[in-house]
Design brief:
It is a single chain. By secondary structure, the chain is an alpha/beta fold. The chain has 2 domains: about 5-205 and about 310-370, 3-Layer(aba) Sandwich (Rossmann fold), CATH 3.40.50; about 230-295, formyl-coa transferase, domain 3. It is built from 18 helices and 13 strands. It has a 6-stranded parallel β-sheet with strand order 5-2-1-6-7-8, with helices on both faces. A 3-stranded antiparallel β-sheet has the order 9-10-11. A hairpin with a 2-residue loop joins β9 (about 235-240) and β10. The longest helix is centred in the middle third of the chain and has 24 residues, at about 165-190. The radius of gyration is 25 Å and the shape is elongated.
Length: about 375
């Protein structure tokens, strides 16, 4: 496995942090998900399968599950013992929370100088907004994503929130990049460091092209789109009798479309006239034959049944101890030598005994005492 030998203490919750650590776990890192004894909130997100949350089972697969009351002195002591055997700590609490617990970066660095501490937040560890709470849509709003999406529909209309929580999932990928780079640096120098990942910063990076265009040109994205040359370009979605297709053609591809449709295709309306009255499958087949980029606009039930998706193994079956056999999206990157894995998410506190006994050398009586005191479940 790519990250075999890397141990991560995962204190994160909901989407942002867990997606970060799920990616690391899928590549072979040993991720110990540390939750309060009552469990982190996303365990209760619907839909539920035999009482288990589908979002939680996806975002936390391949991890080991441990409960630990970090507000107790014994819980903190155990955490510090785990820290000595770990490489990375990941948290996405509101700024100041870890410091109040005595587990902030400075405290942990004093205990373990080579620790890599990934602090995931809405606005970062500094700046005038650093103390503000945040969620994914806040970063999507402030980075321009919502406005950009709305402007493509109607510049005078309302903003449109993009599908899914890009303000969580995209920064999570950036967090993985940062953690891997910090591990590389530590392996060369022995130095640990703080990896400060802000949702707003990452979403600005994800909006980099339209922002860069504005900074050099002075026009907003919809103005550039309005004023763009349209000769030799045909992009857009078109309604067939049983659904929609997306066509993306330029240069010689547009010439082939003109020949196929018998139209000059001076506007998207001309293409719509040709698509109207045809079924999606017929449009797709005709454009593929003409070597023009085209795709059906799928509902999710169609996505999971597509032959290409199946051939690439992008839907994987996982056996969960309580939910049973479930299907989820697979890890999207293929490695020729070190394939990624897709294991079940842990039950609450599932690996308490294994971690405390095997990693910290605790005996049965000591573990039982911790459970009676409410330090673990």
């Amino acid at each position: 496995m790519l990250l075999e030998g890397v141990r991560v203490l995962d204190l994160s919750h909901v989407y942002y942090g867990p997606y970060t650590t799920m990616i690391l776990a899928s590549m072979g890192a040993e991720v110990i998900k540390i939750e309060p004894p009552w469990g982190e909130i996303s365990r209760f997100y619907p839909p539920l399968v035999n009482g288990e949350s589908s979002p939680f089972m996806y975002l936390n697969r391949c991890k080991k599950g441990m409960t630990l009351n970090l507000k107790s002195e014994e819980g903190k002591r155990i955490f510090y013992e785990l820290l000595e055997k770990a490489d990375v700590v990941v948290e996405n609490f509101k700024r100041g929370t870890m410091e109040k617990l005595g587990l902030g970066y400075e405290e942990l660095r004093n205990k373990k100088p080579d620790v890599i501490y990934a602090a995931l937040s809405g606005f970062g560890v500094d700046g005038p907004y650093s103390d503000r709470p945040s969620f994914a849509p806040v970063a999507e709003a402030m980075s321009g994503w919502m406005r950009l999406t709305g402007d493509l529909v109607d510049p005078e209309g309302p903003p449109i929130r993009p599908a899914e929580y890009h303000g969580d999932l995209d920064p999570a990928i950036w967090a993985v990049v940062g953690i891997l780079a910090a591990l590389r640096h530590r392996d060369r120098t022995g130095e640990g460091q703080l990896v400060d990942v802000a949702q707003l910063d990452c979403m600005i990076a994800q909006t980099g092209i339209p922002i860069s265009n504005y900074l050099v040109d002075g026009r907003l994205a919809w103005e550039i789109w309005r004023d763009r040359p349209t000769v030799g370009i045909l992009f857009g979605f078109f309604k067939a009798t049983d659904g929609y297709v997306y066509v993306a053609a330029e240069g010689g591809q547009v010439d082939r479309l003109k020949e196929l449709t018998g139209s000059d295709l001076e506007s998207n309306e001309d293409m719509q006239l040709w698509v109207s009255g045809k079924k999606v499958r017929g449009v797709i087949d005709a454009l593929i034959e003409a070597n023009v980029p085209v795709a059906p606009i799928y509902q999710l039930d169609e996505v999971v049944e597509d032959p290409q998706v199946k051939a690439r193994g992008m839907i994987v079956e996982i056996e969960h101890p309580r939910a049973g056999r479930i299907r989820q999206p697979n890890f999207p990157v293929r490695f020729s030598k070190t394939p990624a894995v897709a294991g079940a998410a842990p039950m609450l506190g599932q690996h308490n005994e294994e971690i405390l006994a095997d990693l910290l050398g605790m005996g049965v009586d000591e573990i039982t005492a911790l459970r009676k005191k409410g330090v673990i479940t």
